[in-house]
């Protein structure tokens, strides 16, 4: 049986992923740092949160679009995803039925998938939150999904208001999830290191008594909150 993709297929198997060494480098940074240097865009809506604040994930996206309440396409994604991938699901933010639970998370973990990010609901939340496999979701619902509606796998999606293309970098932590376009990852990592160095230096200065932001008065004057000859 052929495993090749064609232009009309609803499942694309062959995608170009962000390089593993770039994933490892990006994983060292908070999602917030990456989001800032990526232009303060590309973050999923705050409804998409980790089931435990200790959960972190980083890896190339395998994208899934489903009809609300149906998870057939997620099963297809689980079957073709590679170790290290992050399955990202556009579930339309629907929370009327869970899209995955403990069994599917166990399957994903056993096959080496790095994590699941769903703009939709999940169930078995106690078990998932106390496990080691990262799961991010928009909510919870004990109702199970159907498996009878066609979806799409490895096509461009919008999840939590963010555009996600197959192979893009996904980084998630306690603050939420950020998407970095695959061709921008190397540049974003370089900027992230510079920002981290600057923030580390600033925090140290604050601890040493420098508690006034040097840029504050200039910006207050720029928006008319302070006169040119006025100071705080």
TrEMBL record:
Cofactor or coenzyme needed: Mg(2+); a divalent metal cation
Protein residues bound to substrate: 101-104, 123
UniProt cross-references to InterPro entries, sorted A to Z: RraA/RraA-like (IPR005493), RraA/RraA-like_sf (IPR036704)
Highest taxon listed in the record's lineage: Bacteria
Binding site for Mg(2+): 124
Swiss-Prot/TrEMBL keywords: Magnesium, Metal-binding
Record GO terms (molecular function): metal ion binding
Matches recorded under PANTHER family: 4-HYDROXY-4-METHYL-2-OXOGLUTARATE ALDOLASE 3-RELATED
Protein name: Putative 4-hydroxy-4-methyl-2-oxoglutarate aldolase
Native organism: Caballeronia terrestris
């Amino acid at each position: 049986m052929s495993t090749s993709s064609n232009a009309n297929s609803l499942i694309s198997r062959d995608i170009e992923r962000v390089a593993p060494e770039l994933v490892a480098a990006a994983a060292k940074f908070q999602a917030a740092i990456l989001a800032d240097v990526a232009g303060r865009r590309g973050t999923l809506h705050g409804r998409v949160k980790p089931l435990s604040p200790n959960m972190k994930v980083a890896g190339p996206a395998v994208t899934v679009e489903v009809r609300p309440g149906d998870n057939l396409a997620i099963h297809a994604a689980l079957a073709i995803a590679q170790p290290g991938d992050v399955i990202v699901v556009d579930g339309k933010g629907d929370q009327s039925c869970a899209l995955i639970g403990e069994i599917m998370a166990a399957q994903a973990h056993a096959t080496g998938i790095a994590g699941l990010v769903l703009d939709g609901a999940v169930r078995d939340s106690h078990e998932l939150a106390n496990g080691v496999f990262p799961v991010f979701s928009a909510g919870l619902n004990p109702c199970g999904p159907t498996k009878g509606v066609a979806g799409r796998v490895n096509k461009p999606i919008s999840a939590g208001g963010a555009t996600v293309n197959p192979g893009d970098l996904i980084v998630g932590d306690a603050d939420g999830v950020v998407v970095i376009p695959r061709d921008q990852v190397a540049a974003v990592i370089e900027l992230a290191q510079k920002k981290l160095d600057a923030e580390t230096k600033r925090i140290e200065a604050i601890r040493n008594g420098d508690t006034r932001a040097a840029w504050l008065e200039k910006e207050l004057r720029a928006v008319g909150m302070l006169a040119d000859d006025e100071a705080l």
